[in-house]
Design a protein that fits this description.
Low-confidence stretches: 116-122
Keywords: Sigma factor, Transcription, Transcription regulation
GO molecular function, one term: sigma factor activity
Structural class: mainly alpha
InterPro entries: RNA_pol_sigma-70-like (IPR039425), RNA_pol_sigma-70_dom (IPR014284), RNA_pol_sigma70_r2 (IPR007627), RNA_pol_sigma70_r4_t2 (IPR013249), RNA_pol_sigma_r2 (IPR013325), RNA_pol_sigma_r3/r4-like (IPR013324), WH-like_DNA-bd_sf (IPR036388)
Protein name: RNA polymerase sigma24 factor
Organism: Streptomyces humidus
CATH class of the largest domain: Mainly Alpha
Number of strands: 0
Distance between the termini: 32 Å
Amino acid sequence: MRLFRPGRGHREGDTDAALLRAVADGDPSALATLYDRHAGWLFARLSRRCADAEVVREVVQDTFVTVWRSAGGHEGGEAGGWLWTIAARRLVDTRRAQERAARVEAARVGDWPSPVAASAEERALTALEFGDVGTALGRISPELREVLRVTVVDGLTTREAARLLGIPEGTVKTRAMRARAELRAALAQLHPNPAPHPCPAGGPT
């Protein structure tokens, strides 16, 4: 499927950080270059979570609309991890909206659908977004949280995570270790006395 491309880019030599600064200043060609650089892999990875190509295409477009509106909030560096966080959340939001619409329609016609078990990915993403784990995750630094998302939720290897985040493989390993330690500490602050709370296990390989 050919994705809709927002204009024509002509800044291929610029870094992601420079492009995002330009997008924040209202440069549509910078957004087009970011789109050319990242839309393909976003579409491919989202397609692993959702078989509906039209939904995936819509999520990719929504992701870049969000980039256009909020590029000024990016903290610099490569855009890959930031874009994936936006896209993954948009996909979750889209699925929830579809489920709500299905429930409303089922209630209208009196035909309730059978419940569908959440996939392992969906359960992991939910655990990282909500409840105590989500609260604790919000307390650790953004770069560590980003590594946890791509290695725990997406299951990427060290090499894949490094490529996505634009950092060395050794940095991925170091941040993953620090992230797990900080997450355990944050969970301990939420529950100072009870039995240890389960923490995302494992790490990049």
